[in-house]
């Protein structure tokens, strides 16, 4: 059989304010029917642009050359996407190729029912009456695993959970039975446990519908789980292309090797954490903890007459000086709320939370202010945590100026330079504006700012989740190094077990506002007791296809059991 | 891969080319550039006329006679009176030129007054929220609900009893316009402040223990004022129209105190039916031209500020350099005064921001 998709010598450039920028450079790829091709790479490697070209979705600022040949599923027609008119493109989209988007909550229109939205796609291609389209919508919803599709076809998007929304979007993509689906980071916005389910569904799509999938992702675990063949992109070029098993077992290109080495594994940090625990001075456990939470409860007020939303429901934990506590949980588990409460950004509504000996329940900003110099905070998104109009040096100097250690940013420059060097940024970077730094560099600058006052407690809220794998590895390394050097206690919040494992002395697992398990890395990750932790751990895909297949079986058993 | 050394320091554009309007002018291409330049030329002519009116104008704005005696009323255009004379015997050409001075005076006073009041109110209201915010929003909504000309008339009666000398008249017109404009600035700044308040860098300042004043003025204000030049130009043209409207309905400035286009139009009403076209055409044209010029500038600035509307030169096929991986796409490019976030959205770099959460 011929290929569903053949890309030859594709090159794409964008017109920007600073002249032409090349995004894709001489890329050639093929996808056979019923095959899953994963395109992996870091941000800016051109993988998303390549994927969008397949659907002809590039903006008007783009120019391209080369050929993108797309065959219909039965092989009866073939078209070159690059040369199609807008009308012809519309014909091809949905019928021959369709797309699954990253963010299921924004890809659905909130004012129409999902049934209407699926039918809309069907009816755009003519052939079906309203009734038939609805029947087809119900059928496809059932096939992607939405229970009770006859009633739920009339539901609005907000009545579905994130994972179900992604199922609906996959159903939308499948409904006209295209030969190829382009899935752009289909699981990135989802929690790990949901991610595993969606990956299962995509595998079924390939097997049952015989649809080929182009999977765009940066997550090597997802690749190992789903892909038959992998293309690694770097700086707009395909640097390596190989069957999945072969790529993971014997990567050829230097970049692929580096990329694979940077992926964090569960179990990496256990030895390190044990060594650190050994090295503690005797009597360390008797020291007064930096943070003590006792039945901590945080409730967000509801609308008038409605009960509030309980984000954190009676959790107790403590962080001792110099210790790193990893807080893991899915979105909505209350982990970020806990971190914000410790920093005094969210009000505690019940129980007790003592930070540096200061009670946070009913705290007054004025009394807490003097403790603030002892708390550092690293935010999730390095892009927005800097004032875009101040230079890096001014931003890093801000805590020094606020707490009166320097009269103005200029006077603090010497200290700022020291800090920048501590986080391995050249001094000259202090004169740059935040947008002139890459994500990883900005996150390092953010670390420098949080350490400026040498705090005894650092709260890091998903500090690496916005970064690429290779950059994440370096930032984590740096974090560990700084922690050793400065000896601060830290609350490290993350949704990624593997990341937490690398840094944390102890790990606490949150689920729906409750603390389900707490212990050292070896205890929690080695022999999890709580069923939720077990499921979380089993859902985490590992970058090795063979091992991942085994884990998948394990997860299936676990799910069947519980 | 990111390393520290291989990134050369980015080229800094000179201060001149980063100035608001100059920056946009350099950025623009094609039709947008044409619109902007046309607008700038008209607006420039307007400002020059206003400044040099005493030099260019052959007569004073309230001059009725020269050494040859009275001008005579409703004289058609001639060598002595380029645009003819009005029913009251004034020289139309001179009054049109002098009118530019009054107009610019009113614009400056009105916009300056409303910008300061609107920005401060919006900042405080948006940052602190609570009951103050609610009251201010209700009041500004109430002001919106009034027809602006009616409100301006009421204000002008309150301030000066209807008509007065130059300073009084200009102030009355300017303040009445101010009242109408404050809610606009208030709303824009408040909306921006509410948005910026939730940004991570403001939270980060709060974690540091920075005071409210410091956060408001150092972190919020400067980031909230990005859209002001746009509203400024659009409001300036509206100010002229309101002033002309005030003059036209008879609440303008006395002809002996200053030249005012709206007042002249009003007095020319009866001339139109009797075939005397010059008394109404030229003041009318002046209003249209100035409003057109300023609006052109405002609209093109508006388009240029939005990357989705901004035109670009098309690039040659597959040209340009591949951006360095691991550097946020567009991150190392040189941005304008608002910073890259202000000028660039994801639209120009389709793969930007798509991989934010592993």
Automatic annotation (TrEMBL), chain A:
<keyword id="KW-0813">Transport</keyword>
<dbReference type="InterPro" id="IPR017871">
    <property type="entry name" value="ABC_transporter-like_CS"/>
</dbReference>
<feature type="domain" description="ABC transporter">
    <location>
        <begin position="296"/>
        <end position="537"/>
    </location>
</feature>
<keyword id="KW-0472">Membrane</keyword>
<dbReference type="Pfam" id="PF08352">
    <property type="entry name" value="oligo_HPY"/>
</dbReference>
<dbReference type="InterPro" id="IPR003439">
    <property type="entry name" value="ABC_transporter-like_ATP-bd"/>
</dbReference>
<dbReference type="GO" id="GO:0005524">
    <property type="term" value="F:ATP binding"/>
</dbReference>
<dbReference type="InterPro" id="IPR003593">
    <property type="entry name" value="AAA+_ATPase"/>
</dbReference>
<keyword id="KW-0547">Nucleotide-binding</keyword>
<comment type="similarity">
    <text>Belongs to the ABC transporter superfamily.</text>
</comment>
<keyword id="KW-0067">ATP-binding</keyword>
<dbReference type="GO" id="GO:0005886">
    <property type="term" value="C:plasma membrane"/>
</dbReference>
<dbReference type="InterPro" id="IPR050388">
    <property type="entry name" value="ABC_Ni/Peptide_Import"/>
</dbReference>
<dbReference type="GO" id="GO:0016887">
    <property type="term" value="F:ATP hydrolysis activity"/>
</dbReference>
<dbReference type="Pfam" id="PF00005">
    <property type="entry name" value="ABC_tran"/>
</dbReference>
<feature type="domain" description="ABC transporter">
    <location>
        <begin position="7"/>
        <end position="260"/>
    </location>
</feature>
<keyword id="KW-1003">Cell membrane</keyword>
<dbReference type="InterPro" id="IPR013563">
    <property type="entry name" value="Oligopep_ABC_C"/>
</dbReference>
<dbReference type="InterPro" id="IPR027417">
    <property type="entry name" value="P-loop_NTPase"/>
</dbReference>
<dbReference type="GO" id="GO:0015833">
    <property type="term" value="P:peptide transport"/>
</dbReference>
<protein>
    <submittedName>
        <fullName>ABC transporter ATP-binding protein</fullName>
    </submittedName>
</protein>
From TrEMBL, chain B:
<keyword id="KW-0813">Transport</keyword>
<feature type="domain" description="ABC transmembrane type-1">
    <location>
        <begin position="100"/>
        <end position="298"/>
    </location>
</feature>
<dbReference type="GO" id="GO:0005886">
    <property type="term" value="C:plasma membrane"/>
</dbReference>
<dbReference type="Pfam" id="PF00528">
    <property type="entry name" value="BPD_transp_1"/>
</dbReference>
<keyword id="KW-1133">Transmembrane helix</keyword>
<dbReference type="GO" id="GO:0055085">
    <property type="term" value="P:transmembrane transport"/>
</dbReference>
<keyword id="KW-1003">Cell membrane</keyword>
<dbReference type="InterPro" id="IPR035906">
    <property type="entry name" value="MetI-like_sf"/>
</dbReference>
<dbReference type="InterPro" id="IPR050366">
    <property type="entry name" value="BP-dependent_transpt_permease"/>
</dbReference>
<dbReference type="InterPro" id="IPR025966">
    <property type="entry name" value="OppC_N"/>
</dbReference>
<keyword id="KW-0812">Transmembrane</keyword>
<feature type="transmembrane region" description="Helical">
    <location>
        <begin position="276"/>
        <end position="298"/>
    </location>
</feature>
<feature type="region of interest" description="Disordered">
    <location>
        <begin position="337"/>
        <end position="358"/>
    </location>
</feature>
<feature type="transmembrane region" description="Helical">
    <location>
        <begin position="166"/>
        <end position="186"/>
    </location>
</feature>
<comment type="similarity">
    <text>Belongs to the binding-protein-dependent transport system permease family.</text>
</comment>
<keyword id="KW-0472">Membrane</keyword>
<dbReference type="InterPro" id="IPR000515">
    <property type="entry name" value="MetI-like"/>
</dbReference>
<feature type="transmembrane region" description="Helical">
    <location>
        <begin position="36"/>
        <end position="61"/>
    </location>
</feature>
<dbReference type="Pfam" id="PF12911">
    <property type="entry name" value="OppC_N"/>
</dbReference>
<feature type="transmembrane region" description="Helical">
    <location>
        <begin position="135"/>
        <end position="160"/>
    </location>
</feature>
<feature type="transmembrane region" description="Helical">
    <location>
        <begin position="103"/>
        <end position="128"/>
    </location>
</feature>
<feature type="transmembrane region" description="Helical">
    <location>
        <begin position="228"/>
        <end position="253"/>
    </location>
</feature>
């Amino acid at each position: 059989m011929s290929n569903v998709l053949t890309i030859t010598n594709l090159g794409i450039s964008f017109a920007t304010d600073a002249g032409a920028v090349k995004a894709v450079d001489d890329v050639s790829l093929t996808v056979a029917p019923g095959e899953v091709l994963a395109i992996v790479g870091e941000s800016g490697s051109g993988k998303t642009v390549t994927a969008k070209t397949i659907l002809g979705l590039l903006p008007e600022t783009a120019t391209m050359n080369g050929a993108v040949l797309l065959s219909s599923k039965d092989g009866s027609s073939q078209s070159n996407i690059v040369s199609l008119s807008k009308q012809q493109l519309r014909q091809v989209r949905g019928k021959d190729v369709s797309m699954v988007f990253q963010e299921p909550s924004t890809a659905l229109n909130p004012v129409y029912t999902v049934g209407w939205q699926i039918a809309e796609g069907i009816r755009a291609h003519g052939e079906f009456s309203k009734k038939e389209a609805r029947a087809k919508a119900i059928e496809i919803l059932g096939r992607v695993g939405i229970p009770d599709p006859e009633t739920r076809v009339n539901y609005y998007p907000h009545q579905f959970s994130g994972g179900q929304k992604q199922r609906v979007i996959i159903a939308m993509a499948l409904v006209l039975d295209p030969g190829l689906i382009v899935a752009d980071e289909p699981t990135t916005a989802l929690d790990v446990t949901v991610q595993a389910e969606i990956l299962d569904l995509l595998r079924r799509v390939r097997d049952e519908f015989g649809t080929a999938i182009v999977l765009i992702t940066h997550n090597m675990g997802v690749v190992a789980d789903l892909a038959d063949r992998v293309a690694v992109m770097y700086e707009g070029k395909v640097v390596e292309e190989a069957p999945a098993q072969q790529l993971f077992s014997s990567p050829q290109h230097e970049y692929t090797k580096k990329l694979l080495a940077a992926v964090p594994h569960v179990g990496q940090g256990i030895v390190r954490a044990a060594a650190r625990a050994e090295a503690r001075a005797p009597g360390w456990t008797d020291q007064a903890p930096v943070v003590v939470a006792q039945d901590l409860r945080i409730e967000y007020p509801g609308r008038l007459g409605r009960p509030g939303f309980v984000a954190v429901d009676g959790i107790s934990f403590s962080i001792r000086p110099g210790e790193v506590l990893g807080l893991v949980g899915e979105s909505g588990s209350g982990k970020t709320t806990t971190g914000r409460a410790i920093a005094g950004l969210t009000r505690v509504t019940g129980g007790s939370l003592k930070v540096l000996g200061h009670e946070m329940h009913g705290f007054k900003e004025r009394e807490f202010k003097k403790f603030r110099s002892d708390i550092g905070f690293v935010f999730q998104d390095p892009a927005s945590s800097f004032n875009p109009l101040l230079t890096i040096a001014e931003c890093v100097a801000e805590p020094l100026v606020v707490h009166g250690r320097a009269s103005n940013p200029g006077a603090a420059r010497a200290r700022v330079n020291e800090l920048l060097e501590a986080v391995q940024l050249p001094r000259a970077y202090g004169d740059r504006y935040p947008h002139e730094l890459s994500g990883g560099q900005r996150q390092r600058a953010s670390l420098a700012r949080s350490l400026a006052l040498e705090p005894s407690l650092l709260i890091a809220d998903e500090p690496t989740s916005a970064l690429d794998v290779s950059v994440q590895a370096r930032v984590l390394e740096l974090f560990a190094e700084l922690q050793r050097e400065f000896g601060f206690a830290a609350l490290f919040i993350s949704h990624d077990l593997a990341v937490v494992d690398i840094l944390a002395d102890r790990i606490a697992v949150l689920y729906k506002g409750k603390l389900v398990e707490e212990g050292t890395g070896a205890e929690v990750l080695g022999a999890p007791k709580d069923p939720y932790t077990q499921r979380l751990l089993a859902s985490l895909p590992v970058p090795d296809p063979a091992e991942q297949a085994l884990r998948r079986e394990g997860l299936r058993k676990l799910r069947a059991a519980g | 891969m990111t390393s520290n050394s291989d990134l050369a320091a980015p080229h800094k554009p000179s201060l001149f080319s980063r100035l608001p309007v100059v920056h946009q002018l350099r950025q623009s291409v094609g039709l947008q550039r044409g619109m902007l330049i046309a607008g700038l030329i008209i607006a420039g002519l307007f400002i020059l006329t206003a400044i040099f009116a005493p030099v260019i104008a052959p007569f004073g704005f309230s001059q009725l006679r020269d050494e040859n005696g009275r001008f005579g009323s409703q004289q058609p255009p001639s060598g002595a009176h380029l645009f003819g004379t009005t029913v009251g015997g004034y020289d139309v050409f001179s009054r049109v030129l002098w009118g530019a001075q009054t107009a610019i005076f009113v614009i400056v006073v009105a916009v300056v007054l409303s910008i300061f009041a609107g920005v401060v109110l919006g900042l405080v209201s948006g940052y602190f929220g609570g009951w103050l915010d609610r009251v201010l929003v209700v009041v500004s909504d109430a002001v919106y609900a009034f027809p602006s000309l009616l409100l301006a008339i009421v204000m002008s009666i309150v301030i000066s009893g209807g008509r007065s000398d130059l300073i009084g008249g200009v102030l009355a017109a300017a303040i009445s316009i101010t009242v109408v404009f404050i809610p606009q600035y208030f709303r824009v700044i408040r909306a921006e402040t509410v948005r910026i308040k939730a940004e991570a860098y403001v939270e980060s300042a709060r974690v540091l223990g920075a005071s409210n004043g410091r956060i408001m003025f150092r972190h919020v204000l400067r980031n909230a004022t990005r859209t002001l030049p746009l509203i400024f130009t659009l409001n300036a043209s509206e100010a002229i129209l309101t002033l002309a409207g005030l003059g036209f309905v008879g609440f303008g400035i006395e002809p002996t105190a200053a030249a005012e286009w709206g007042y002249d139009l009003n007095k020319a009403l009866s001339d139109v039916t009797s075939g005397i076209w010059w008394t109404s055409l030229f003041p009318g044209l002046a209003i249209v031209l100035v409003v057109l010029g300023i609006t052109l500038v405002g609209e093109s600035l508006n388009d240029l500020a939005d990357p989705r509307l901004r035109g670009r030169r098309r690039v040659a096929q597959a040209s340009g350099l591949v951006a360095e991986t691991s550097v946020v796409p567009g991150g190392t490019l040189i941005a304008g005064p608002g910073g890259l976030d202000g000028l660039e959205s994801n639209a120009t770099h389709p793969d930007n921001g798509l991989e934010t959460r592993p």
